[in-house]
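We emphasize that the prediction below concerns an isolated chain of 572 residues; any contacts that depend on oligomerization or on bound cofactors are therefore not represented. The input was used exactly as deposited, without trimming of termini.
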Amino acid sequence: MANRLTKNERMKVLFDNYFEEGIISPLRDVEYNDNFKSFKKLKSQKLPYVYDVNHFCFLSNSSSKQVNYLLLKKEKAYVTFNLPKKAGGFREINAPSKSMKHIQRWILDHILYKMSLGDYVHGFVPKRSILTNASIHVSQNLVLGIDIKDFFPSIDFNSVFRIFTSVGYTQKAAHFLAALCTYKSKLPQGAPTSPMLANLAIASLDIIIDKYCRRRNFKYSRYADDITISGSHNLPMHKQKIIEIIEGNGFTVNEEKTRLHSRGSRQKVTGLVVNDKVSIGRSRKKTLRAIVHNILKNGYEIENREKDPFFKEKIFGELAFARMVEPDFANPLIEKLKCANWASYDEQTIDSRESELLMRSLEKKSYHKPVDATQIIESESDFLKAISSTIAELKHYIEDRRWIEPFWDDARVIEINGEKHKIPASPKKETKIQPTLHVFFNRNLLPLGVQVLRETDEGVGKLDFKFLVTLKGNIPLNVCAEFKLAHNEELEHGLTKQLPLYLKASPSKSGIFLVMWFKDDKGKYFSKPISQNKSQMLNMIEEAIKEINNKEEFKIESILIDASKKPSASNN
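Result of the prediction step, given as a token string:
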């Protein structure tokens, strides 16, 4: 009877298969021994062994050329933009590109999710949530909340490197894995790997605090950067010691967000009330009941005062969250709300919802920076400058950054009498483009105190856009803007008839004629305006404006934005 292989010998056979199958080239003795140790340790934890970048690409079904490029050109792998914080200010987001996100997602699913965390960790862990986090602290005398400041940025490359080496990856493998998960030597907010890596980086601190709390019969949990400790009346005397433990492990406590709640007050843990049971809270329930009641009684239009294009989705989202916590409260409200008449809402807001999503796409793709809300409009000159700057920025994104997809209908195939016909890409109608322009203008001007109205009734027709601001001393100012597509037959009529009528009917002394061009100089895409190329059309507009401005008290300026799809070389 043949001798059975030992566990170590079986592992060696498995490891040697990598060389026999050509996945890894033969190794020198020292390197072989180091990698075999790595292989055994990783296999014992059911983690994938990784030798080098090429082997990683083989495992993750990635292009080695692309992965090496992303490692060398990190700035090409991320888009940086800012999101407003609830408490004010902005949070920098570094969103990975599609290819980098694919790589990071593989690391998350096949490596990070397989690493163990304590039961006290609830943030970004499968099958755990803010609900499981809050439930630990129900009916406690005192609840202490501690917030870690700049959680993700405080975790550097070396911390991530140590996470990978601690579970068995060689230094070579750990180095490029850490490089794939960090940006500017920090954890990037926006990468799918960052939350779990943050959990793992703080794991040793979790163990220390949990041990400290258990000895004193305190309950400990953590949801991302939000630490919660609850227990008896002697908890306050341990607060400073716990903060010292946190800061002694390389993290900074946000003192402004540190809070201590007794049973006599509303005890909140990750947004949920935990005094007697886990609840969304009486005030939140009262608000939701009132919203549903008002929608059913008066319709959604009155309740949606801010004309939010995602109003319906937000209300149902609020109720879905409430159902997760208190289903007996939320389910009846959801059923009632489903009975409301949403048909006109869906019809009226579809363009606005699409425009909002396109605007968010622009903010990510183009490094769109938030408006400086400290800028003050004190004069008519400031007002006109703010509008001109906003339109100039729009022109820059469309013409230079080629942000043109919101203004074109895609090419499509339709079937007529059994035959398929290809419909080429074509410009959207003015009424379909206006919502996107409206969202863009509001994004840039509302923080400055400028209101932008669309389709306002001026008594002589509907004006496309009206910009309004009130200066100190309650002095109102407004600017009228008419929008036309260059290939619209009503182009000249809009400039010489419509806009002057609107300006005469309003106190405004300034008008803007905004034109969007969809035709290249060769007339490749459209035949209108008939027999006019771009320069001829501009000459016509300039002559008309000159004549109007010479005889009227108001002044008009024109702005042309070129949203053409440039002909490809194959079409020339």
